[in-house]
Structure formats: structure tokens, C-alpha cells
Amino acid sequence: MQEMYRIAVLPGDGIGVEIVPEAVKALKAIAEKFGHEFVFTEALVGGAAYDAVGHPLPDETLELCQNSDAVLLGAIGGPKWDDLPVHLRPEVGALLPLRKELGLFANLRPCMLFPGLIHASTLKEEVIEGVDILVVRELTGGLYFGEKTREKTADGGQKATDVLSYSTYEIERVVRFAYEAARKRRKKLCSVDKANVLESSRLWRETVTELAKEYPDVETVHMYVDNCAMQLIRNPKQFDVIVTENMFGDILTDEASMLTGSIGMLPSASIGGEVGLYEPAHGSAPDIAGQKKANPLATILSAAMMLRYSFHLEEEARTIENAVRQVLIEGYRTPDLMEPGKILVNTVEMGDKVAEKIREAK
Ligand SMILES: NC(=O)C1=CN([C@@H]2O[C@H](COP(=O)(O)OP(=O)(O)OC[C@H]3O[C@@H](n4cnc5c(N)ncnc54)[C@H](O)[C@@H]3O)[C@@H](O)[C@H]2O)C=CC1
Ligand SMILES: CC(C)CC(=O)C(=O)O
Ligand SMILES: [Mg+2]
User: Fold this and answer.
1) Which end of the chain is more exposed for a tag (fewer CB within 10 A), N or C?
2) Ligand 2 atom closest to Cα of 144?
3) ipTM of the assembly?
4) Hey, what CATH class is 1-107+262-362 in?
């Protein structure tokens, strides 16, 4: 078994700099407990990198990621950088190229309800109890990566264009990944598209229909994205694995996070290349940045996914997940999950509690 793992640490912007240290804390507790050596190297990305060196994705940061065993990312972007030219904006100039350069075509976003959080959601108990959905979102194609243009119109206004395109190859590899994941779970795949309108979705649906023949043991359902958005709230337990294109997956997972009580509970793993990238599903939350209010659990759970998917350290991954479970069962809550009768903690205290539970684990 490999003993030394190189982890690129990119806190980024806003709450990124608050939540990432808490995930590093959990990883250090794991290293101590299991005798692994995790070598952490921090680098600048996003607005912080733009401010320091004039580009949101410096060459050294990309090279560090390419030469690491995995990447832990916080979040990037914020109002301070919103008006930069498009290629310098943190989201378009750093996050998307990082995902593309690392070949991370599949973004896994597990959406499950942790014990004790059933009342943190505004939905009825019987609707969300036992929710366990894996969303597989295509991550390096679609609208976010299509050509973007602006031109002036004759009436003095402007016209803006974003191109949405998918090839069979791009669809096939992510859908195949989702089928393999469904095979290891409850054997249900829901492919989400807008095939009643979009040509790219028609190709998506045709490709899924073809692939379904190779997976007769998995039940395949097609659903339009607007219906899916509604079904996630009406009856989320109908879903096992959802596979969908980039933007639909982005939007549906923010929605699905509320089944778990907070967007601060939704981790993610981006895989497909040699180096995986692990980040919470949420953004840099400028509205609460710098106040120690951010929930670090999505980032800590993303670190667990790193152990599972990049390092194949399943027991270690479960140790983190169990520690999170334990802390929640004991009633500790950051403000996003706070309810009467629970114990309010800040970002650092929550990270400390998780690390403590990791160290105490049998
Ligand atoms: N992967 C990334 O780096 C992403 C970056 N962004 C960027 O982040 C910035 C803010 O975007 P928003 O649309 O406001 O989305 P956001 O996800 O940052 O925040 C949405 C809401 O959720 C809350 N929230 C988010 N994470 C939380 C946490 N861990 N604990 C407690 N509450 C949390 C925020 O306080 C806010 O009220 C933008 O610049 C956006 O482009 C957005 C999404 C992903
Ligand atoms: C900021 C976007 C490019 C990405 C996003 O919202 C996400 O990956 O969840
Ligand atoms: Mg998003």
C-alpha cells in the first residue's frame, strides 16, 4: 500500500479559506491514526490568485495539481472579481480550466440525509427520511464550455451567445460511469435531459438508450429536467443515481442539497483523469465569509471522497464519515443547521469536533 500521498490544497476565496483548513485537520487526524503520510502543498487559485499574481489560475498552481495525487479545493469567486474580463473571472478563468485540464468529466455529488438532520430540512419527515441519491454530473462539456460571444445589434443593444454542444463520446463516458455506480447501488438510473426541446439533449437521450442495452440489470428512466426539479422535492426517494449534463447537474444539486438540510452538507468528487479534485458543491458564500459561520462538513466529506476515490482508502474514508455522523448525533450544529435544543458551534469548533471523533474512533 502506498504510504505517502501528495495533496494540492487550494483554499480559494471567501469561506474557502475557512473550510479547507478544517478538512486538512480531518486528513491529518486520519494520517496520524492510520500511519499514512499526507504531504499538503498550498497554492493560490481564483480571486486570491488574481489579486496576487494577475491570473486566477497561475501556471504553478496548475502544475502543482497535475503533479499531485489529489486536489482539495475550497471555493472561488465573489463580487470583487465579477466585473473582470471573462477569461480573468475566477469561475471561467480558473475553475473551468482546472476541471478541463485535469480531465475531470464526472462530478459525483452524493446527497444523503445524515442522522439527526431530519428536522433541519423544511420538507416533511416522511418525504426525506432515508434519502440517498448520487448525482453524476457531466463536468467538462456543455454550455459552460461552449463558445461565448457578445456583439452589438442594429437597435443599439447587444446580443450574447453561449453554445451548448455534446458529442456522443462525452455523453457515453459519463453515462457509463453512472451505470457502473448504479450497479453498485440500488440499480436505478435516471437520466435527466430536455430532449423535448434541445438537440444536445436528444443526442444525450439516444446515447443513454443505446447504453442501457449493456446494463439490463439497471432500471433506466428518462426524465425532463423541469420535472426532475419538481420530483426531487415531491418524492426524492424515487431516485438512486441521477446522470445529467453540466448545467442541469449544477442546478439540480444545489436544489437537492436542501434535502440534506443545508448546502453545507453536499460534498463532491470530480474524477475521470489521473488526479481527482475534491470540493464542496457550494460556492464562496461572500455573505458569511470571514465570520466563522460556514459549515465545513461538505468539505470534510469531500476529503473522505478523496480517500475513497483517489487513494482507495475505504476504511479511512468511512472513519471521516462516521466522525461527521457522530458529531451530528451529539447535536453540534453550525448556524445553517441550527435548531432549538442543539449546540451551536463555529467553523473551527465543528472541524475540531470531527478531528476529535476521528482520533477516538475504534
Ligand atoms: N465551486 C466553486 O468554487 C463555486 C463558486 N461559486 C461562486 O461563489 C460565489 C457565491 O455564489 P452564490 O451563488 O452566493 O453561492 P454559494 O454557494 O456561495 O452561497 C449560496 C448560499 O448558501 C450559503 N452557503 C454556501 N456554503 C455554505 C456553507 N458551507 N455553510 C453555510 N452556508 C453556506 C451562503 O451563505 C449563501 O447564502 C460566486 O462568485 C459564485 O460564482 C459558486 C458555486 C461554486
Ligand atoms: C461556478 C460554476 C462554474 C460552478 C458551480 O456552480 C459548481 O460547480 O457547482
Ligand atoms: Mg454550483
Assistant:
1) C
2) 3
3) 0.99
4) alpha beta
